[in-house]
Amino acid sequence: MMPKLSRTQRLGTVIGISTCFFLAELSVGFYTHSLALVADAFHYLNDLVGFVIALIAIRVSASADSPKALSFGWQRAQLLGAFFNGVLLLTLGISIFLQSIERFISLQRVEDPKLMFILGCVGLGLNIISVLFLHGMMGALVHVIGDAANNLGVMAAALVIWLAHYDGRYYADPAASMGISVMILLSSIPIVRRAGLILLESAPNGVDLGDVKHDLEKIPGVLAIHELHIWRLNQHKSLASVHVVISDHSVSHFLKLAKIINECFHAYGIHSATLQPEVAAITIESTDIEVEIESRSLRRRSLSKCQIICGTLCEELTCCG
């Protein structure tokens, strides 16, 4: 029966396995002149970095302390690590792909296909062990499954070079390495894209700022909405800030209004919003429906700019300046 291990212990064990196998596979790859082994080894290095980042993230999240300069704490640490990991993976994928093309042009003999096959089998076995240790940790599990597919590619190339007897058998090595590089690129591009968009403080998927602004302006008591910003802090948390123009001067009225506004944000999956009230004494008294609609339209256009002006010095330093 497998002893019960914590997430930290499981990740630590997998990091140890990955480090040993990375060094072994890289050494054998250079010894046998197998680009497929070298490519798989660097893919392991990327996963190793990912596991280390995951381990650090777990330990940091367990600690409540963070530097005072980090007002949001370490909540973007894992995201930053994922972006770095994705960029590293993307660079390695491009490099290996170009080297594979070079090997197709200038074919190189693989010295010991038996050793190459054995190392591929060992790598597959270690990946199966890693899957058992990382059961339930889906993000890391996907990495390990991808590595297992790469091991199968290395084993297939080794068998072709080992058992076939025609000169073209050595093309199996750059072919396998090219396949591995394509898998690396396919896995790295979504990582870089997702992490990059969050670091650029984009709105959550499926949230349209125009729809949010429209819903907020439909709330009774809200005259206009401007300076609406919605962004993702990390993979799970979304934040918002907005300037709300109201006509009622009382604090109690705004508190009731703020509750409704927050409920509107909650419907979009945003559970932390900063509201800045701006008071504008504008009244409309008209019995004609068309005149009232036109007046409201003109009123909202006039209130679309911030009512609290800090001066010309601030214009270029604001978030939208």
From TrEMBL:
Keyword Transmembrane appears in the UniProt entry: yes
* Main localization of the protein described in the UniProt heading: membrane
Q: Which InterPro entries match?
A: Cation_efflux, Cation_efflux_CTD, Cation_efflux_CTD_sf, Cation_efflux_TM, Cation_efflux_TMD_sf
Q: Which GO terms describe its biological process?
A: intracellular zinc ion homeostasis
One GO MF term attached to the UniProt entry:
zinc ion transmembrane transporter activity
Name by which UniProt lists this protein: Cation efflux protein cytoplasmic domain-containing protein
Q: Where is the Cation efflux protein cytoplasmic domain?
A: 205-278
Q: Which organism is it from?
A: Penicilliopsis zonata CBS 506.65
Bilayer topology reads: Multi-pass membrane protein
List, alphabetically, the GO terms of the cellular component aspect: plasma membrane
Where is it located?
Cell inner membrane
